[in-house]
Design goal:
The protein is built from four helices and four strands; from the N terminus they run ααββββαα. It has about 120 residues and is of the alpha+beta class.
Amino acid sequence: MREPLIARGHRYVTHSDTETIIHLYEEYGADCVRHLRGMFAFAIWNRATKTLFIARDRLGIKPLYYQLTPGTVCCSDRKSKRCWRMADSSGVQSGALPEYLAFGYLSGEESFYSGIRS
C-alpha cells in the first residue's frame, strides 16, 4: 500500500504501518478503511474539521473501547487502563456478565463498564 501512496506524493518518515493509515486517511478520508486488510483499530482526530474518525476491522478482532463525555473522547484497547480510569467501579454493568459467560464475548456496543462502549 505504501508504493501507490508514495507515487501520489505522500512522504514517509517511518516504516510504520500506522503512518500508512494516516496517509490513507489523508488521501481517501473515511473510505481509507476500504484499503486496509487484517486487524486494526484506530482513531484519528482531524484538527482542520474538528472531527473524530474511529474505525475497527470488519470482524472486530482488534477491540476498540471508547467513552464519550462532554468535550472529550477516550479510546483504548483492552490492555490500556486509560478509559478504565475514567469508569468508576460503581459503574460495572452486571447485566453484561451472563452474555459474556454464555458466548465468550459481548455482542453489541456494551462493555462491562457503564459509559464505556465497544
